[in-house]
Amino acid sequence: MTDASALISPQLVVGLGNPGAKYDQTRHNIGFEAIDALSQAWQIPLTENRKFQGYFGEGTAVKGQKVRLLKPTTYMNLSGQSIRAVIDWYKLPPESVLVIYDDMDLPVGKLRLRQSGSAGGHNGMKSTIAHLNSQNFPRLRIGIGSPKQKSGNGEVVSHVLGRFSVAERQALAEVLKLVVDAVEMSMKQGIPKAMSLYNNRTIELTNASEAS
């Protein structure tokens, strides 16, 4: 491993989403659900933190490692403000921030972990990169599928702000377990090891209308 950032374990895990009941459990908020899954797995309660502009928790994860969890409440396109407030307070390097968010280019049932990269058109990631002044931080994308027709911006907006089907929701319960496993592996053995184990995994959707 030549990249020094590969050796840095995630110390802040951030899930991107929009605050409020209106956006709860929409496709765009799967990052929030991932943080909730980690909060439950590690028994780290999240409480509103005005200084950090988000729901925040601190505790221990695997191998007794200290970790912080964050769900920004700034709305998606200002997510970086909240993340910046936390890393400034704890003096964390950008490479130690793992950001979890939705990706339309991946089907439901797929994860993609990367060590760095561009925003790929995602407003939450654009804000994060701008506020961290770096693209060199790991990110975990969760597939939300693409709209049947990508004819215009309206189609995309209604898709990401829509909710999952019953079959997709069943698959996502398994996906969120994989998210926890992948994050724990990245903390135990590094991002590259977690990438090799989880980027090729697929949770198949079962047809919810079929009687099994």
Automatic annotation (TrEMBL):
The record marks 18 as: Discriminates between blocked and unblocked aminoacyl-tRNA. The keyword RNA-binding applies. GO terms for molecular function: peptidyl-tRNA hydrolase activity; tRNA binding. It is found in: Cytoplasm. Coiled coil: none annotated. The active site is at 28 (proton acceptor). Keywords: Cytoplasm, Hydrolase, RNA-binding, tRNA-binding. TRNA binds at residues 23, 75, 77, 123. Belongs to the PTH family. This is Peptidyl-tRNA hydrolase. It comes from Leptolyngbya sp. NK1-12.
